[in-house]
Here is the input.
Amino acid sequence: MILKSSDLPLHELIGLEVKIIKSNNPSLKGKKGIVQFETKNTLHFEDENKMIIAQKSICNFLFHTNTGEAVNLEGNKIAFRPEDRIRTVRK
Here is the structure.
C-alpha cells in the first residue's frame, strides 16, 4: 500500500523511520530510528542501540513514508491511541 503524506496521521506508525526535529526536551532533538512501539502518549524507537521513548506532545517528528516522502508532524496531532486516531483526526 502506498502511504500518502495526507494519510500519515491515520496510518500505523510502527515500522516507519522517524526523526525528532523539535522537542521541549533538548536531549531528544535529532534522535532517529524505526518506530518499534507506540502508545497514546509516546513513540518508542531505537537510536544507536538505545531505546528512545519520546513523549508525543512535546515533540515534532519527521516521518519517512514508503514513497520516500518526508512528512513533518506535530506530536500533539498524533497523541491518541493508534486505534482512536482515525476517529479523532477526521473530526
About this structure: Residues 19 and 32 are 4 Å apart (CA to CA). The helical segments are 82-89. The mean pLDDT is 86.
